[in-house]
Amino acid sequence: MASKITIGNAQGFWGDSPDAPANLLRQFPELDYLTLDYLAEVSLSILALQRSREPETGYARDFPEVLRSLMPLWKTGCKTRIVCNAGGLNPEACARACLKVLAEAGVSKTIGVVTGDNVLPLLQAEPGDALYRHWETGASVSTVIDRLMTANAYIGAPGVCEALDAGADIVLTGRVADPSLAVGIAMHAFGWRETDYEKLAAATVAGHVLECGTQACGGISTHWLDWPDPANMGFPYVELHADGAFTVTKPAGTGGAVNLETVKEQLLYEIGDPVNYLSPDCRVDFTALQLKPSGPNRVTVSGVAGFAPTDRYKVSATYRDGYWAQGALTIFGRDAVTKARRCGEIVLERLARAGYTYERHNIECLGANAVVAGVLPEPPLLETVLRISVADPRKEAIERFAKEIAPLVTSGPQGTTGYAGGRPKPTPVFAYWPCFVAKNQVHVQSRPIGPEGDTP
Amino acid sequence: MIAVRLGEIAHARSGDKGSGANIGVIAYTEAGYATIKSKVTVEAVVAFFAPLNPGEVRRYTLDNLGALNFVLTSVLAGGGSRSLRIDAQGKTLGQALLEMPLELEPAELALCRRPAREENAS
């Protein structure tokens, strides 16, 4: 059994740098495990749309390409094992695409898939169940049942652990809680049990710090301008010990910074009550842990407190919620913001005359502190970007909106420009429906997938 | 008293949580933590973000990090998937909160500022 392992992350979200995984392994070839995170709250609805058009899709198609970029490294002795949620709604199809890449490169690796997170049939069978109520509004899922697209439980670490125990070099999951990728790795490497809550909590915090990639290395930090070589910002890895203590760091020679400021910020990223951070594997208390600088670009974390998890999984469900579109124009000149706002009102007024009012609309004058409209004073500006957005159940209403932006190029104020992108496109809205599901209703499975089918 | 912005004595990080968002506010020094604990109250944050309709605001303390965590339960007007705002995910709220005006005694301010780079670089 190992006493220390290294776990990295080279993909903080779907759309992150495609070169990052190969770069990280070139910079740090001894890395034991590489995690990649592809799934955000509504990614699965996009995958559902793709799969409805083409059954052999429904996973993050970037991943087989990433795998291809790693082939030269694996051929020359790199032994890093990969754990990622690129499987999306269709981990088996993702595995088949990966097997093709491996075969083409003549590399022999074992793939394990983890399934069981799809709980859509449960919600459809019992839409009146209190657990499936929207956890913010309390509304019953029956109110959107005919528009429900996906429902996936945030399953935990044991499936990942099982796949690694069975020898998988590449573990493909669907909706696993982001930090649980690291927890599953640690359970496998150290032989931790599902009741070792303190250790699972420590690995959960490690996974939480890792899961957004460069954000642990100075990305989106307050003092971003201070960190060196930002074009070469490092992706993070942790050195995790069998007792749960870990050090956050990044490969030598990369840009960005791992220090108390950047790690504290990432610890606080998207958390709620810090003594009740709920993962499928445990409940974490963030208020007991201690941080200590332990060298250049190294911060050591110890003393994480952990407790038993609840008997339910969080569920990320999505439903269709009409369409939306946004249009933008640049306005330059004296009183730019007043002019821009008037332009926005003109668009909505013309649409109302044509018989279209919208369920929701928003007019923003970017540059004038619009991101927190009303919170901070509006500076006098010579230049602003007018952004108008509308949402409505009727696609034709959104299409009509799209035709009402360009006329301002000739009827608006002098200094109106920037209409280069063409007409706005109506985009379907996939709204988020957070709820819960009883753990005993969900059956997580892990199995190897080889070139001949289920068993290699 | 000297008028300063919160950003003189703390740094921050925000992100989305459903149709709400959280903002972590981290003091640079121990003295700064005492100051933000007494001055950056729930009431102050509710008043500051009132134009965005933040909903219920909860404040949590993390003494071990010298940090406060605010949860603004419905500040995102529908959240990442539905909000029509350019910042549908609350990425900018941390930077916005650092603009909150504070009044400090000069001696207190000196104890709260960010230490020189050499000291805070780990």
Query: What is the share of helical residues of chain B?
Result: 25-40%
**Largest beta sheet: strand ordering of chain A:** 11-12-8-7-1-2-3-6-4-19
Q: Give start-end ranges of low-pLDDT stretches of chain B.
A: none
- Supply the number of structural domains of chain A: 2
User: Mean pLDDT of chain B, as a whole number?
Assistant: 94
Main β-sheet description of chain B: 4 strands, antiparallel
Figure out the total of helices of chain B: 5
Structural class of chain B: alpha+beta
Report, as a whole number of angstroms, the end-to-end distance of chain A.
26 Å
Overall pLDDT level of chain A: 96
| Major sheet attributes of chain A | 10 strands, mixed
Greatest interface and its participating residue counts: A-B, 65 and 51 residues
- β-strand amount of chain B: 25-35%
Radius of gyration of chain B: 15 Å
Fold and architecture overview:
The complex is a heterodimer of chains A (456) and B (122). With 456 residues, chain A is an alpha+beta fold. Chain A has two domains: 4-117 and 154-310, no CATH class; 319-431, Alpha-Beta Plaits, CATH 3.30.70. Chain A has twelve helices and 19 strands. Chain A has helices at residues 20-27, 43-53, 62-75, 91-105, 120-125, 158-165, 180-190, 197-210, 260-267, 336-353, 395-402, 408-411; strands spanning 4-9, 33-36, 81-84, 111-115, 148-153, 170-173, 237-241, 246-249, 277-278, 283-285, 290-293, 299-302, 305-307, 312-332, 360-366, 383-392, 416-417, 427-438, 445-449. In chain A, the strands form three sheets. In chain A, strands 11-12-8-7-1-2-3-6-4-19 form a ten-stranded mixed β-sheet. In chain A, strands 5, 14, 15, 16, 17 and 18 form a six-stranded antiparallel β-sheet that branches. In chain A, helix 3 (62-75) packs parallel to helix 4 (91-105) and helix 7 packs across helix 8. Chain B has 122 residues and is α+β, with helices and mostly antiparallel strands. Chain B has one domain. In chain B, the strands form two sheets. Chain B has a four-stranded antiparallel β-sheet. In chain B, helix 1 packs across helix 4 (106-112). Chain B is elongated and about 45 Å long. The termini of chain B are far apart. The mean pLDDT of chain B is 94. Chains A and B meet through helix 9, strand 11, strand 14, strand 15 and strand 16 of A and strand 2, strand 3, strand 4, strand 5 and helix 3 of B.
